[in-house]
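Field reference: sequence -> structure
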Amino acid sequence: MKSTKSIDKGDKLKFRQLSFLAGVCAALLVLAAGCGSSSSSGGSVKLSLVAYSTPAEVYAKLIPAFNKTSAGKDVSFNQSYGPSGDQSRAVAAGQPADVVHFSLEPDIARLVDAKLVSSNWDQNQFHGIIANSVVVFIVRKGNPKHIENWSDLTKPGVQVVTPNPFTSGGARWNIMAAYGAQLKLGDSDTQAQQYLASMFKNVVVQPDSAADALQTFVGGKGDVLLDYENDAILAQAKGEAVDYVIPKQTILIQTPGAVTSDSSHATQAKAFLNFLWSQQGQQILADNGYRPVLQGVTSSKYSYPTPPQLFDINYVGGWDSVMTKFFDPTSGIVAKIEQSNGVSTGG
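Structure field:
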């Protein structure tokens, strides 16, 4: 092949002829493909799923099940998992996403504010919630420290593991569970805040995400891990030497999902989200440690007892109030607690 630096007039003419023939061939190939089978890989679509860290394992089952449906037949996925807050900020900053599934509603709200998710994302029978869970105590096998209730987390010598509340949505659920539990027990707002300060004095490590916190705990660090119930179930299913306790007072975790406004494949993205809410999708979630949001779905593998004093985020003020009061990185209650313990909040 000649270098472009040495092309003469004759070569240029030959080049134009070859280019014309190549164009004709390409057009014929496109026409042939259009007349071929509808199962042609040429029609395949790739969706970008961006989610918080915990559901990576269940999506390994949900996605193949979706691919077996007519709507998911030619759909493949790019998948990204990480701390909920970090994932939300990444999408707001330009990371491609067709479907998002975060730990908490404010991480969706960030994308609504950025015009990347429709403001009516939660206007359906599920209010945009894909799955539920509750905050539990994951403990060593046999529960050697006899950790049964919230007061046990402030006892001398009890090492607590919980993720970093300034990156992890799971950490924020943990904190609001701890705070709300004190209100359920009759404490005032001030006393509940004092409880948080006491509990954090026993926190020995704060990994970036719930998934990292679980790995840290099963690796031998700490006596108790505050975590999603589904993480506890997954750890046991994998044979980890852990038990878990559902405290009488705990919070209902509601994890939201949405299709992005700028998705190039909105039809397929919506079909996938609808699959997650379908009987089959919810059954897979229920059989993998998640509390289903579709009424009537139960699991033959796990029971999901309702804690006696279960509450939701509205009991502690709702996310708008909570984000300012507790999680403002400079002036929030948690920031002040962390700073008093010498922990950076990024504020």
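Note: The chain has two domains: 44-131+254-286, 133-252+305-340.
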